[in-house]
Amino acid sequence: MAAAAFISLLVIPFEKASKEKDFFRTLSVWISVLSISAAFILSVILFHQFQAGQGHYGTALEASLPWMNLAGIKMELGILLNPIALIMLLIVNGVAALVAIFSARYMQGEDGYSRYFAALSFFVFAMLGIVLANNLIQIFIFWELVGVASYLLIGFWFQKPSASLASKKAFLTTRIGDAGMMLGILLLFGILVQAGTGTFNFLELETKLHQNALPSELLTWACIGLFLGAVGKSAQVPLHVWLPDAMEGPTPASALIHAATMVAAGVYMLARLFFLFEMSPVALQVIAWTGVTTALIAATIAVVQNDIKKVLAYSTLSQLGYMVMAIGLHHPEAGMFHLVTHAFFKALLFLGAGSLIHALHTQDIWQMSAALSSQKNAGFKKLPITVITFLIGTAALAGIPFTSGFFSKEEILNAASNGPIAIFVASLVVVMLTAYYMGRVLTVVFFSSASKAHGKHQHDIHEDNALVTLPLIILAIFSIAAGYLPFQALLSGDSHAAHPPLWLAILSVSLAVFGLLASFVLYRNKTEDRHAALFQIPVKIIQEKFYFDHFYDWFVSRVQGGLAIAADFFERKILVAFGTEGAAKLVTAVGSVVRKMQNGWIQTYGLFFVMGWIILIAYLIGNGGKS
Amino acid sequence: MIHPTAEHYLVLSGILFSIGLFGLFVRRHILIMLLCLELMLNAANLALITASSVHGQTDGQIVSFFVMVIAAVEVTIGLAIAVLLFKEKNTVDTEQMTSLKG
User: What ipTM describes this predicted complex?
Assistant: First the structure.
């Protein structure tokens, strides 16, 4: 069943309407939307069958074809369905279907409309490959394909230099992590070969890990290698720099790829391979600390951003940090739960932002504010659905009670409260910061009456048609409802999982409310940013994004550049000068001497001949005629 | 009257050979050089026949017949080459023939 979804999507990337005629444009949209929707329906059916057929949730369903059989290395192409994969399947197909519908309207009139849908479908195909993969090689292949799809979508407006640079940056940065992942996979395989026979298959891997005592130090390194892949793809510190830049892509693509699904691939991989990471406490600690660092740094940076998509991008980073942290703290189910709810409300926020950008023609929150404040309460009157769904998304992100974000965040905070105290405190700070920066965006855009000095947008502001609003409404419903899923039961089959304590809920909610109120007080009716006036030096550091990009620039230009110069010197002046060119020069030099003898005069040749004979005879006589 | 001995013949052969070699090296005329080659071959023949009569064996004389045959062939080919070269280069001077110069 899932295989059918898989194959139907395999066809789409090859759909390429080279002639941008209307017929082909419409066709490409229909192919894309229908096949993704079909995949979604199929995955719902699959979910039901799985539930009914298995009766309990912990079991897995596997089907695979042999691909290659090298000496001792069996590679296969297969699918492995377990509860985590099923949930992820629903999320990916569901959000992708809504985003495709939204894009059908949002991207209308763009050059390369068909190209966009081809890339989107290609992305969904690759993402499903990751979700369903039953072995490490396959997951790695689709991991790379997802990277390519992301590259294509970020660089969709490749005519813009910033977009093409951003796509390059995203691709190269994630490749650093992918190199680590490759090393991790190979190291793991090597360890298993040492202990008996190697395998890439997840299920076999799990049984092997439980059977054999493996060298823990090497295993830790393998785990960290695999985690590096997740660091790249899920944009954790220090490889997070690509995600904010990736916002150069079309907003619906950002919603799907850089908020809901692709960046969750790293988290998903960690959860799917948790049995492996479980074996190495050190690796788990690394994961937890990386996650919490990312959450904190990204939340801080989000506070000072003025581009609505950048705020959401940093918020995504921060929430991904949460998920990774929860997995590092032995609570993969909490991480996955947050992944699910986050997928809905972040996709909602991004699509809402897209709707705002579409209506107001700017991404800057101050200009949005100016555009909206030209008429009193224009936001609510003119864009009711966008504003209300955006509010719901914000509430879910901030963790306001009775939204999905509240429940999943509680799970994560519960995990953190059992971890080191520093992690717990940091995650509470992030709760407050999250509420604060989202409150800041809301207050500035919707609740401020900025002066009309900026207000040059006097065009008619209106809500777009149902293709835009319907996905928003559906996502808003899910942003609330997803929290009521019996998630623990879905994942582990244990319906009596402990609920987070009440004091934790009260603490986190009061922090969130404090953050919202603070932003409201600070930004009500303001026309410019107030951070710089309040805290000068810290804001400068934060505005420069903690100098990560500066450091990388410096690193690339100085350290790597220096290495390149040294390597260049070594190659040119030593390898080439003494090696290849040196040898050539030696031959030339010898040749130029020897060539003098070849003067073309037959007498000279004869003379050499005779002299050679004389020397030979003299030698023979000297040897007494012997030899 | 001095009765010539084997040594005389060998010395004469050496002298003829040296004259041939010397001529080969110093003369630039291609026909003269071919003649010098002939001279050297006949010097070798003389040495062979002398050795043959000293040892009382016919081997040397037989070999000298071979040498004569080869010399005839060599002259034929050599002269043919000389004619062709003259046609090609319009000269018989070897100093002008340096197309093999490296």
Answer: 0.81
Q: Residue A371 in contact with residue A450, Cβ under 8 Å?
A: no
**How confident is the model at residue A494, as a pLDDT?**
52
For residue B54, give how far its alpha carbon lies from the nearest alpha carbon of chain A (Å): 22
* Residue B57 domain boundaries: 30-90
Give backbone dihedrals phi and psi of A74, rounded to 5 degrees, phi first.
-100, 125
Residues recorded for chain A: 627
Residue B3 belongs to some domain of the structure: no
CA distance A239 to A387: 33
Longest dimension (CA), chain A: 122
The tokens for B87 are 């046609």
Enumerate chain B positions whose Cβ falls within 8 A of a Cβ in A.
21, 24-26, 28, 33, 94-95, 97-102
pLDDT tens-digit series, residues A449-467: 654 444 444 556 667 677 7
The reported pLDDT for the residue numbered B97 is: 78
For residue B14, give the amino acid letter.
G
pLDDT tens-digit series, residues A557-591: 778 888 888 888 888 888 888 878 888 889 999 98
Residue with the bigger pLDDT between A363 and B18: it is B18
Q: CA-CA distance, A461 to A382, in Å (whole number)?
A: 6
**Among the partner residues B21, B24, B98, nearest to A601 by beta-carbon distance:** B98
Q: Hey, which residues 500-529 in chain A have their CB within 8 Å of chain B? A: none
Q: Is residue B17 part of a domain?
A: no
Average pLDDT of the segment spanning A54-77? 72
- CB within 8 Å of A282: residues ≥ 6 apart: A220
Chain B closest-CA separation from residue A617 CA (Å): 16
Of A142-156, A179-193, A524-538, B68-82, minimum mean pLDDT range: A524-538
**Dihedral (C-alpha) A107, A112, A115, A121: value to the nearest 10 degrees?**
0
Inform me whether the C-beta atom of residue A536 falls under 8 Å from chain B C-beta atoms.
no
Alpha-carbon gap, residue A574 to A580, rounded angstroms: 10
Read off the pLDDT of residues A415-444 as tens digits, 9 standing for 90 and up: 888 888 888 888 888 998 898 888 888 888
Asked if B25 and A607 come within 8 Å (Cβ–Cβ), the reply is yes
Pairwise pLDDT comparison (A198 vs A153), residue with the higher score: A153
Query: Considering only CB atoms, which chain A residues are within 8 Å of B94?
Result: 601-603
Residue of A nearest to B28 (CA): A603
Number of structural domains chain B divides into: 1
Asked if residue B56 belongs to a domain, the reply is: yes
Give pLDDT, residue B66: 93
The rounded radius of gyration (Å) of the Cα atoms in chain B is: 17
Instruction: Check A600 against B21: CB less than 8 A apart.
Output: no
Stretch (H or E) spanning A67: strand A61-70
Residue B95 domain flag: no
Pairing relation of β-strands A73-81 and A61-70? antiparallel
